[in-house]
Design a protein that fits this description.
Elements lengths: L3 E7 L3 E8 L4 E9 H4 L19 E2 L1 H17 L7 E8 L4 E4 L10 E2 L7 H11 L2 H8 L8 H11 L1 H6 L2 E4 H10 L7 H4 L14 H7 L16 E4 L2 H7 L6 E3 L2 E2 H8 L8 E5 L3 E4 L14 E4 L5 E7 L3 H10 L4 H8 L10 E3 L16 E3 L8 H20 L8 E5 L6 H11 L2 E4 L4 H19 L4 H8 L17 H16 L12
Parallel strand pairs: 1-5, 5-10, 5-11, 12-18, 18-19
Antiparallel strand pairs: 1-2, 2-3, 4-7, 6-8, 9-10, 12-13, 13-15, 14-15, 16-17
Helix pairs in contact: 3-5, 3-9, 5-9, 11-16, 14-15, 16-17
The chain binds D-xylulose.
The site of D-xylulose has 14 residues, from helix 11.
Length: 515
């Protein structure tokens, strides 16, 4: 156990850690803390504080630190040799905003998360300031969406000007945890920074137009952005004292959860597609050069290895499915049994699964829509298939814009454990799917920590070797498309109906009515 590396994934609903032994090629420890269950004092549901205000999704950043402390306590209790950990890397949910004063106090008690869609107005203001959507895409390779960080910051300046004035540092989630782990180092890196929508990914320059539309002094509050493949400093003396880490343990740059999901699923070179089925649904590829979607529906981010990462994100994925299970007291097996009573394509019935508004298509205030249902169709089995297929049709509709033609899709995230999900994705995408074993982003973080450590200490670039040694495809659960024909027309119907719903020709926008 000479070379241990710790990966931490601070995600929407939980904090997971994985410790790898790079010499043995083994995972030596993994554990997780679920915020709702294990930290009830923070009062979250699905990782966010329930809010009456439409579209608001926020959490107390101290909860993420508390989760980490709880996991370190558990390691101490089992006498884990924390002193042998050579480096730690943090994966964080993307886009979440943490605001801090010069003393390290939060100037905003809660952080607006990636799935907060309350900042549509601010997106419009920023877009107008730059000269419209096309001009914005030209400047930063992305359109402004409420999920991204820029509009969250403008919203803070608008609604809490005094607190914004007191703020000295604007952070993303993983930067905040790095700040805690190092005892005060404030650094950013290109992967997560590209999700702020403040710069052209990879350009190393804040967009003057976007930033000045937020506040004149705003860029002085953004920490320096350094390369993703560097460590940022040693672990803090305080954590060495409390937990027995070695004082030489390094904290590496860290990144967003999708960037680390890519590493944890072996997606480190062009030609591979990953779909992550978590609270959000994402599909991404890695490219050597930037890809800019003229409609701004596919985001352009940097990855955490110096390349580019075009990414589709839908905000509705596990939510509709999990709520259906909860409300009807179903488990995955019972759901699958019910599904067997229906046939693929559900005779044309599906749900536009826009339960919490939607990022792609860009409908932050949308509501779900039942399509094709007659009065006799509201039976549980029909609903089950309509929810499952609705989620996947929605994902596919955005996926078609990714510049890729893949023969195999790698699946990660909680729902990749369900064979119904894996098979239905294979059928709707008309492409083989294979789940990747383990926790993608946390494993990616541990592998990144090891990669950076060996680069900095032994001058070795072992990324491919580490990925090949640790990323295991669950080949026994590979699914070939067997019902692709059932979805050919349905996909066209979904796409065209979605387009018409959004076209809008009347004087009210049905997606903006709060009834
Ligand atoms: C991606 C996105 C989500 C979060 C989830 O742009 O917003 O996938 O990263 O943690």
């Amino acid at each position: 156990m000479e070379n241990l590396f710790l990966g931490i994934d601070s995600s929407t609903q939980s904090c997971k850690i994985i410790c790898i032994d790079s010499d043995e090629g083994t995972i030596v420890f993994q554990d997780s803390v679920n915020y709702d269950r294990d930290l009830p004092e923070f009062g979250t549901k699905d990782g966010a504080i329930p809010s009456r205000e439409p579209g608001v999704s926020e959490a107390d950043p101290r909860m993420w630190i508390r989760a980490l402390e709880l996991l370190f306590d558990r390691l101490i209790n089992i006498k884990f040799p924390l002193n042998l950990i050579k480096a730690i890397s943090v994966s964080g949910q993307q886009h979440g905003l943490v605001c801090m004063d010069s003393q390290g106090n939060l100037t905003r008690k809660t952080s607006k998360l990636w799935n907060d869609v309350s900042t549509k107005e601010e997106c419009e203001i920023l877009t107008e300031a730059v000269g419209g959507k096309q001009a914005m895409i030209k400047k930063i390779a992305n359109s402004q969406r409420p999920g991204y960080t820029a509009s969250k910051i403008l919203n803070f300046y608008h609604h809490e000007p005094e607190a914004a004035a007191k703020t000295k540092i604007f952070f993303l989630v993983h930067n905040y945890l790095n700040w805690f782990l190092t005892g005060g180092i404030a650094r950013m890196e290109p992967g997560d920074v590209s999700g702020m929508a403040l710069s052209f990914p990879g350009s190393h320059q804040w967009s003057e137009k976007v930033c000045s539309a937020i506040a004149p002094d705003f860029t002085t509050k953004l920490p320096p952005v350094r390369k993703s493949d560097l460590s940022i400093g040693p672990i803090s003396g305080n954590l060495v004292q409390r937990y027995g880490f070695s004082s030489t343990c390094r904290i590496d740059a860290g990144s967003g959860d999708n960037m680390y999901g890519a590493i944890g699923t072996g997606n480190v070179r062009p030609g591979i597609v990953t779909i992550s089925l978590g609270t959000s649904g994402t599909a991404y590829i890695i490219l050597d050069e930037p890809y800019v979607d003229p409609l701004g529906e596919i985001a352009l981010f940097c990855d955490s290895t110096g390349k580019f990462m075009p990414l589709l994100c839908v905000s509705n994925m596990a939510n509709g499915y999990n709520d259906l299970l909860r409300i009807h007291k179903l488990d995955h097996d019972k759901f699958d049994q019910l599904l067997k009573k229906t046939s693929p394509g559900n005779d044309g019935k599906f749900i536009f699964p826009w339960f919490v508004g939607e990022r792609t298509p860009d409908l932050p205030k949308a509501k779900p829509i039942f399509w094709g249902f007659g009065l006799e169709d509201f039976q549980l089995q029909t609903m089950c298939r309509a929810v499952l297929e609705g989620h996947i049709l929605n994902l596919f509709d955005g996926y078609r814009r990714l510049p890729v033609n893949s023969r195999e899709i790698r699946l990660t995230g909680g729902l990749s454990n369900s064979d119904s999900w894996c098979q239905t994705i294979a059928d709707i995408f008309d492409c083989e799917t294979v789940p990747v074993k383990g926790e993608g982003a946390a494993l990616g973080a541990a592998l990144h920590a090891a990669w950076v450590y060996f680069k900095e200490n032994n001058n070795q670039d072992r990324l491919d070797e580490l990925v090949d040694g640790f990323v295991i495809l669950d080949k026994g659960r590979r699914k070939k498309p067997v019902n692709a024909g059932a979805y050919q027309n349905l996909k066209k119907v979904y796409s065209e109906a979605s387009r018409r719903l959004r076209q809008g020709s009347g004087d009210i926008d049905p997606f903006l009515q709060v009834l």
